[in-house]
Specification:
This protein has eleven helices and 40 strands. Helices cover 21% and strands 17% of the residues. It is α/β, with parallel strands linked by helices. Strands 2-4-6-8-10-12-13-14-15-16-18-20-22-24-25-27 form a 16-stranded parallel β-sheet, with no helix packed on it. Strands 1-3-5-7-9-11 form a six-stranded parallel β-sheet, with no helix packed on it. It starts with a strand and ends with a helix.
Length: 790
């Protein structure tokens, strides 16, 4: 049903139930509906209704029991008169555009059981206003459900929350910009089932009084600044099935007593500072489904007891200091879908038993010290879509059957001696006949030559000793080896590979030249960047790229394969990125990227910048961060490219100056005005890049004139509605106002807030890129968990 609600409906004076929920209604709610003294239930949820609620709402509704207005576009303040409807038990106003100060008269609704004000723009304005709101609710003795999450609430949680109804079962106050601590008085809410305070600025510690909440099933304190240890009192919550503490500053050990929580199904302690070993008792939680201990300081080994977690679906241990071997008993986790143990110190071989985990969809074993071969048993994993064993010490043939036909070189890079298909950019495997041939040649030619050389060397040594007798021998110094280890390619070879630099092979053009696609004789696809030496600065750009790419190596940086440098010709042979640039994906209607893909790309770029700024002895400033310089491989993994105007910060310098200007719209203010470049300037450009990626608006768009800019446009939207600026392709109109829609808008709002922190005008106030990377990873984790709930 579409259209507007007819005004004549107010003439139905005996109407008791008005239900137009989940339709496509637009326009205003006729105010006469709120003057029907007999009506008991109003259900207008899930439409596109707009406008304000009349200031007299509730005054003439003496028999109203339930009011459902969630999921519309209603705006303005919530009138304080709404609780003149004294019999009201359910008030559902969530997912609207209500703004202004929250009313402190909800306590007049003494029969209220459900109050939902979530996902709007409500604020308290002052500490006393927030305290008044909660104090007024203490009159609602039947209140079972209270939700205020995702509002710019601000302020703190007052101690008076402990005086709320003893009947309260659900309390949701996540993403409300709350500060202060977690009141110990929460322990008074003895019947509470779910308590969620995620993504605030709560500090201090977890109060031990939470141990009193014997009915608590879900506790979400993620993404705050909670410190101290995980209190052992949590182990008293026998009904707890979900415990989310990720993204805080928790320290010390994981409590041994967590093994007492036999009802626990999901545990997330990632992105904290937990240390020591994982308690051996933990592996007795045989019914737990998801365990996430990633990004901590955990050490020690994984025991064989890990096989006890028979129904485990997700195991995330990446970014710790775990060592020893991966136990073979992991093959007992028959329901395991996600396995991530990257960036640890695991040694030994990859267990053959992993091949029996037929439910696996994602395996990340990268950045360890694993050796031996990749088991062929993994070819049986028909559901496997992501596999990464890069940065290990593996050797032997890469399996070629099953899911391995879909994996690219990014899954196997930087190992000792892997061999296989040329498309994986590894050496071809030797056949038995080749090995026999080499062995016979060794015996036939090499050994006699070696024997002859040994005899000659012995004779020379004897001769020298005889001639010099007791004189000291001079020390012979060899010339130092060249730092460049890759094979140079001639101009003639490049000309042949590109059909004379034909336009049919042209894949792009930049400030200092053109880029061509070519295939090397052994099958590798490459990008050949040819510099136009007629342009001022081209030779300097070539030298800068050579200098940077010679020094750096990271999975999210484009790799240099070779070079060609003659008097009148200079070119770089680079890793080919088959998916092209981020710019192409953003502005071509043939391509689309969803929220998670765009978020993953931003994390890849942040990882590259973190390495350039902090992970290298000589910090590198990219100086020209923009979508055209972010290239995507087959797996849509981002690689940062084009270091033609980058700068190296040698010595103790944290800033330098340049006469070379970067691209307008992405430059930090101090770069454009004074030529000052620093890592802070890259962070500014990264903030603009994030905004552009999720709005699909260039900073040079014609709509930004005068004082208006891309950054100011987004700043204003965060105070109103981020949906007004986000790329329309990311938010489907069909799912508008649904739970998944809310998860997406929450994710995008968090990204935009982070982007603005990166792109502040004052360099000293900008985030470090390593902190931005952590925040992006938190946002992704939060988004994926929200989406998995639907």
């Amino acid at each position: 049903m579409a259209g507007e609600i007819p005004h004549e409906i107010g003439n139905l004076q005996n109407l008791k139930l008005l239900d137009f929920g989940a339709n496509n209604l637009t326009g205003l709610i006729p105010s006469i509906i709120f003057n029907n003294s007999n009506i008991e239930v109003i259900q207008l949820y899930g439409n596109h209704l707009s406008g304000n609620l009349p200031s007299s709402t509730g005054i003439n509704l003496p028999n109203l029991l339930r009011l459902y207005l969630w999921g519309n576009n209603l705006s303005g303040v919530i009138p304080s008169s709404i609780c003149n409807a004294s019999k009201l038990t359910v008030l559902e106003l969530s997912r609207n555009l209500f703004s202004g100060l929250v009313a402190n008269t909800f306590g007049n609704c003494r029969q209220l059981q459900i109050l939902n004000l979530a996902y709007s723009q409500l604020a308290t304005g002052s500490l006393s206003q927030g305290q008044s709101f909660f104090s007024s609710l203490t009159n609602c003795r039947y209140l079972r459900y209270l939700a205020i999450q995702t509002n710019p609430w601000k302020g703190i949680l007052p101690n008076s929350v402990g005086n709320l109804s003893k009947s309260l079962e659900y309390f949701y106050a996540g993403s409300c910009e709350l500060g202060g601590g977690i009141p110990a008085e929460f322990g008074n809410l003895s019947n509470i089932i779910a308590l969620s305070l995620y993504q605030n600025q709560l500090a201090s510690t977890i109060p031990t009084t939470v141990g009193k909440l014997q009915n608590l099933q879900g506790l979400d304190l993620s993404y705050n600044n909670i410190q101290g240890s995980i209190p052992s009192e949590l182990c008293q919550l026998e009904s707890l099935n979900t415990l989310l503490l990720q993204g805080n500053a928790l320290q010390n050990q994981i409590p041994t007593c967590l093994a007492n929580l036999t009802s626990l199904r999901a545990l997330n302690l990632s992105s904290n500072r937990l240390n020591s070993t994982i308690p051996p008792t933990f592996w007795s939680l045989e019914y737990i489904l998801v365990v996430d201990f990633s990004l901590n300081l955990l050490s020690g080994c994984l025991p064989q007891d890990i096989g006890n977690l028979k129904v485990l679906t997700g195991l995330y241990l990446s970014g710790n200091q775990l060592s020893c071997s991966i136990p073979s008993s992991i093959g007992g986790l028959k329901d395991l879908t996600y396995l991530a143990v990257a960036r640890n110190g695991f040694q030994g071989s990859i267990p053959e038993s992993i091949g029996s985990l037929i439910s696996l969809e994602s395996v990340d074993l990268s950045d360890n010290k694993l050796s031996g071969e990749i088991p062929k048993s993994l070819e049986a994993l028909s559901h496997l879509v992501y596999f990464n064993v890069s940065f290990n010490r593996l050797e032997g043939e890469i399996p070629s059957g099953g899911p391995f036909v879909n994996f690219t070189e990014g899954s196997f890079m930087q190992n000792y001696a892997l061999c296989g298909s040329l498309r994986l950019q590894v050496q071809a495997c030797e056949t038995s006949s080749t090995q026999q041939s080499k062995s016979s040649k060794l015996l036939r030619y090499v050994l006699p030559a070696v024997a002859t050389a040994v005899v000659m060397l012995a004779l020379i040594i004897i001769f020298i000793r005889c001639c010099t007798r007791n004189k000291n021998l001079p020390i012979l110094e060899n010339d130092s080896l060249s730092l460049a280890t890759w094979r140079r390619i001639s101009y003639q070879e490049l000309q042949r590979l590109t059909d004379g630099f034909s336009e049919s092979n042209l894949i792009g053009a930049g400030s200092f030249g053109s880029v061509y696609k070519a295939t090397l004789p052994y099958g590798m696809n490459v990008a050949i960047k040819v510099f136009n030496l007629q342009l001022d600065g081209a030779i300097k750009s070539f030298d800068a790229e050579c200098e940077v790419l010679r020094r750096v190596r990271h999975r999210n940086l484009v790799k240099i394969i070779s070079s060609c440098s003659n008097h009148g010709f200079k070119a770089l042979i680079l890793e080919y990125m088959p998916q092209g640039s981020l710019e192409k994906w953003l502005y071509s209607h043939k391509y689309t990227l969803n929220i998670q893909q765009r978020l993953d790309i931003m994390i890849d770029v942040a990882s590259a910048l973190e390495y350039l700024h902090h992970g290298h002895p000589t910090p590198v400033i990219h100086c020209d961060l923009k979508p055209s310089n972010v290239l995507l491989d087959d797996d849509t993994v981002a690689h940062l490219s084009d270091f033609g105007i980058s700068k190296l910060l040698d010595g103790e310098d944290s800033v330098t100056q340049t006469m070379t200007l970067a691209t307008f719209g992405y430059m930090a203010p101090e770069y454009g005005s004074e030529g000052i470049v620093s890592t802070c300037g890259d962070v500014y450009s990264f903030g603009i890049l994030m905004i552009e990626t999720f709005t699909r608006k260039m900073p040079t768009d014609e709509m930004f004139t005068g004082e208006t800019s891309l950054k100011k446009w987004v700043e204003e939207s965060l105070r109103l509605a981020v949906t007004e600026v986000v790329d329309a392709e990311l938010l489907s109109s069909e799912e508008e106002e649904g739970a998944e829609y809310a998860a997406k808008t929450k994710c995008i709002s968090s990204i935009m807030s982070l982007a603005l922190k990166c792109a502040t005008d004052i360099p000293e106030e900008r985030m470090k890129v390593k902190d931005a990377l952590v925040d992006l990873q938190k946002i992704r984790t939060n988004f994926l968990m929200d989406v998995q709930e639907f």
